[in-house]
Design goal:
Blueprint (H helix, E strand, L loop, with lengths): L16 H12 L2 H13 L3 H29 L3 H4 L7 H31 L22 H5 L3 H10 L3 H10 L1
GO cellular component, one term: plasma membrane
Membrane topology: Multi-pass membrane protein
Protein name: Transporter
Length: about 170
């Protein structure tokens, strides 16, 4: 009498292709990409930036994304196990894991900033709107003070002063 054969666990399947496609889009395009892309486009040359961006997307971004997708679907394994296919490329899995850890840490800090500002905003006067708080320096100048200056004084003051919101972030939040 032999030992019973173990069958592999049943693999989960997508219910329809639209669900799979929307999951891929959500994986590839985050909120950070949506709000930063126009800014990066403008900062790096406007429409001329789209030429190298499209080139890199077609020849590097899409093939690497497709490779990661197909290897993950084929092996049903994570980034460390999938590269057993070729041990020379095992470092790619470790680099991918390290990148994901740093990205998660980065996003957690950004979300913590958002929660901090959300909680701090439940006040009648938000703390980053005025000077005179314990974290402000003598260089702090609010909008009311700047509104009463002449144009020449305003140009001089802008280079020598800091805003209350800037000081709140650098001297209180951080």
């Amino acid at each position: 009498m032999g030992a019973p054969e173990l069958s592999p666990p049943e693999r989960k399947q997508w219910t329809n292709p639209v669900e799979f496609f929307l999951t891929l889009v959500a994986f590839a395009v985050g909120l950070g990409n949506v709000w930063r892309f126009p800014y990066l486009c403008f900062k790096n040359g406007g429409g001329a930036f789209l030429i190298p961006y499209t080139f890199m997307l077609i020849f590097i971004g899409a093939p690497v994304f497709y490779l990661e997708l197909t290897l993950g679907q084929f092996t049903s394994a994570g980034p460390l196990v999938v590269w057993r296919v070729n041990p020379l490329l095992r470092g790619i899995g470790y680099a991918s894991l390290a990148t994901n850890c740093f990205l998660a840490l980065y996003y957690n800090v950004l979300i913590a900033y958002c929660f901090y500002y959300l909680i701090a905003s439940f006040q009648l006067v938000v703390p980053w709107s005025t000077c005179g708080n314990w974290w402000n320096t003598p260089l702090c100048t609010d909008q009311r003070t700047l509104a009463n200056l002449s144009r020449i004084d305003l140009d001089l003051m802008k280079n020598m002063t800091t805003s209350p919101s800037e000081e709140y972030f650098y001297r209180r939040v951080l």
